[in-house]
Every structure is written in structure tokens, then in C-alpha cells.
Amino acid sequence: MTLKADLHMHTHASDGKLTSIEIVNKCKTKGLDIISITDHDTTAGIEEALTHGLELGITVVPGIELSTTYNGESIHVLGYFGDDSYKNKTFSKILKEMTDFRINRGKKIVENLDKHFNIELDYDDILRKAKGVIARPHIAKAIVDKGYDYSWEYIFKNIIGENSPAYVPKKNLSLEDGINLLKSVNALVVLAHPILYKKTNIEELMKYDFDGIEAIYHMNTPEQNEYYKSIAKKYKKIITAGSDFHGIEKKDNGHGSIGCVSLTGEYLSVFMDSINLKLK
């Protein structure tokens, strides 16, 4: 039997729609054997997934997706753990500081929506539904749920996008600092979705201490998958695959569905060996 892995998905611990348990259940129905929870800048969704994965016979690899900046562009860095190093106290403290900033950022965006667009939202209600961490998808959903007649795409582009007066910048973590932070807690460090970077040449990023590239990604064409695999081979990096599932339909926000791409065969064996986990 061919084992299948989807190594990039988000729970409601960051900006996903589903709980960890709901995601693991979906992964089971999709026939996945190995998954990774990679929430943005938090590990809060991992424990439930690990426990429920054990019950359903799914291997859950602890992960995270750090937001960093390089060359004036947001570069996302995936970190994977073969043990419980993600519980490191210093690491957890830094992540909490990032989470606290996100909460305050969300409050400021909500205030700006009222100020600049006359869009009135209940911040406390958004925070409650988001389970404590507000990201822009939570705010966009609140706008739609309140009955304002805007499409999801229009909201992101014109109301809470980077060029909007309501937008509040993220707290910037440099690419180098982000990689070093993950390395300090023994993470395997992978460049997420290279197809999304418009300002930076991928080979330029290979001068940094990445262990791998998310060469197989739901937005890639087959030709693009092969191109990124060739980059990984050239620079001796491992290859990962991810749907970037957020629990919201692909047509709405550009994210994939669970298992729409998967890592199999030798690529999966190399990945698991790299984090010292054995294939079942």
C-alpha cells in the first residue's frame, strides 16, 4: 500500500475554519496516512491532532508556518518536528508574543473598518469565534456574516488588503531570524509554496539554511512541480507536498482541499527519515 502525506494545513488555532479533530477526521476519510498541522505562528492546534490521530491511526507530524519577510516580501517558512521540541519554553514565549500582537492587530483593523468604511463589527464576538487568535479571514467572515454585500475576494483586495487604510501590517520577523528560530528548536525547515513569491528568485533564497522546499503544492501546474523538484535536487534539499488547507472552499481564498496533493514514495521516506520518524 502506498502511504500518502499532506504536510501543510491550518486549524482554527490560526486562520483555518476547522478544529484539529475535524481536520484529522477529514484526513481519515481522504485516505491520508501522515499529516502535519502547520498553523501560522502557533503550535496550539497540535496536541488535539496528535491525540486524535493516534485514535484513528494517522501519524501527525507537529509543524508550524512562520511568517517572515525578505526583500520587501512575505516569505513563509514551514517547520517540522520529530519530537516535542516545539514545546520549548523560549520558543513558546516568542510565539505567544506574536499571537498577542495578532490579537491587538485584529482589534485595530476592526476599529479602522468602522473609521474608514463605516463597517461596524463586534470585535469580542470575532475573537470568541476565532478561539482567541484573529486573522484577516476571521474579519472577512464577520463582514459577510453581518450582511455587508461584498464578495470574499473584494473584501481582501479592497477593504482589508495591504493598500487599504484599514490594513495594519504584521509584526515583521526577518527570514534569517525565522529560520534561526526554528533551527534553535531542532525543526526541519522548509520553504513554503515558492509559487507565491513574486519579487524574489527562489534560487536566491537557497543561500539560506533551508532543509527543503514545498515543491509539490496545490496551485502548481505539473510543470511547476517538476521545476521546483529540480531546484530541490540542485541544492540538495528535501521535497514536501501540501494542500495548504484552511477549511474554506478553494474558490473563495486560493487554498487547496485536504489531500488534493500528497507526498508519497521515496520523497516521503526521505522526509520522515529527516525528522527521525519511522514509516508505519
Q: What is the CATH-assigned architecture of the largest domain?
A: Alpha-Beta Barrel
Give me the CATH superfamily of the largest domain.
Metal-dependent hydrolases
| Number of separate domains | 2
- SSE ordering: EHEHEEHHHHHEHEHEHH
**Overall pLDDT, averaged?**
92
- What is the top-level CATH class of the largest domain? Alpha Beta
Q: What oligomeric state best describes the polypeptide chains here? A: single chain
As laid out across the biggest beta sheet, the strand order is 1-2-3-4-5-6-7
Q: Would you tell me which CATH topology of the largest domain applies?
A: TIM Barrel
Q: Structural class of the secondary structure composition? A: alpha/beta
Task: Give the biggest sheet.
Answer: 7 strands, mixed
User: Whole-Å distance between the termini?
Assistant: 11 Å
Radius of gyration over all CA atoms, rounded = 18 Å
Uncertain runs with pLDDT below 50, 5 residues or more? none
Share of residues in strands: 15-25%
Query: How many E strands?
Result: 7
| Overall morphology | globular
Name a few traits of the molecule.
280 residues, TIM Barrel, single chain, 16% strand, 2 domains, seven-stranded mixed beta sheet, 41% helix, alpha/beta, globular
Explain what this protein looks like in three dimensions.
There is one protein chain. It is built from eleven helices and seven strands. With 280 residues, it is an alpha/beta fold. The protein folds into two domains: 5-84 and 172-274, Alpha-Beta Barrel (TIM Barrel), CATH 3.20.20.140; 95-159, no CATH class. A seven-stranded mixed β-sheet has the order 1-2-3-4-5-6-7. Helix 1 (20-29) packs parallel to helix 2 (46-56). The protein is globular and about 55 Å long. The model has no long low-confidence stretch (mean pLDDT 92).
